[in-house]
User: Fold this.
Amino acid sequence: MMIPVILSGGSGTRLWPVSRKSYPKQFCALLREETPFQETLLRARSLGIKASPIIVGSWEHRFIMAEQLRQVDIEDATILLEPVARNSAAAMAAAAFLQADQDDEAILWFMPADAEISDLAALGEVLSQARQAAEKGFIATFGMQPTRPETGYGYIEQGPALAGVENSFHIARFLEKPDESEAKRLVNDGRYFWNSGMYIAKAKVFLSELKALAPDIYDNVQKAIRHNSRDLGFVQLDKEAFSQSPSISVDYAVAEKTRRAAVVPARFNWMDVGSWDAVWELTPKDEAGNAVRGNVFLDNARNCYVHSDGVVATVTGVSDLIIIVTQDAVMVSHRDSAQDVRHMVARLKKEGHSEAEQHVRVYRPWGFYESLIKKERFQVKRIYVSPGEQLSLQKHFHRAEHWVVVGGTAVVTRDQEQLIVQENESVYLPLGCVHRLENPGRIPLTLIEVQSGAYLGEDDIIRLDDIYQR
Assistant:
């Protein structure tokens, strides 16, 4: 049996400002209607893998993952929550321990949730070859045939052939992301492949190698699994134990050290959608080489990628630029510097700019809200509540609120009252009152919230009851 394991813990800073810590790239529809997270899950189903997937992701994104699963009708997934980020080795170990409790002979297909793969038939062929290697006790990975001297990927050097396994080889060594001249040499050599980050191995084999090569990760993640808690359909790793695990990639922890590492060369179309230059490459272009998404107008521009989330973006007389426009940020970069966007994000974060990690739109288990106007003593928000959902029963010490329903029907608890508020109606919530908002209907509820008071921070929420256990 093969189990898909989706690794969904990345933050995607090179795709800022669309991808941010609060809503990273794997959940953003950058190329099509489905997100990379959804496409990764559907890809496994398309290859005939019927086993229930295991998803390893951040506790902060648990309701985003659940909602995106619901959108593509996947109801049998196990969502394993990391209380803190500890890189791929710990994430893979958690999934392996969870599966090993049921069947340690199961083969796990570990996949990052952000890769683009177009040729499923070719993928299925090399997956079958990698599975053969895994059945013989190897930890196999796909080595992607390089098509250009890419400096954003790590590389794998092919070693001797594996006996009795078609198109499979020992790994001679892993190489760090090279500079441009070294990348050209590796591509011309012919024995080097891009490191896809996908691994295929038996649960017991992966855990055995992890125990021998990275015992700190093995011991702490095993404790985190043993002391997991389950609520609202999620499996949550024990925070104290998981936090003690070293934060290190599986390449460093296991793959570079084990004698069981194998590479299966692959020639299907694959790309790590990790930078805006990659998005440009994968997006259809006009005759001048420009790719656009959103409300964009171009004049005398060449080889640009321009993305706008709403406002009109006009671009004139430039070439080889990346221009990203969101509600609260604009990013402009030369395409050659696409990998360096993360440096600016780090600077923004260091200087205290919330835009480095937070969107204007903030997702919650019941829907989302977004700030429309924010001044010193008042703020205006749009609040969207999904059908059948409700906010926590809460109160505020520093602000009053006025709600105006603009779509759907709301049930509002206000102290001892329960009010039905319909479209074009409003309700006032004085400072200190206990209140709750519910959507009892079958269509989304949208309202405009006007806050007023001396302090408007999100930490001025005293939750008295919450179905989401926050």
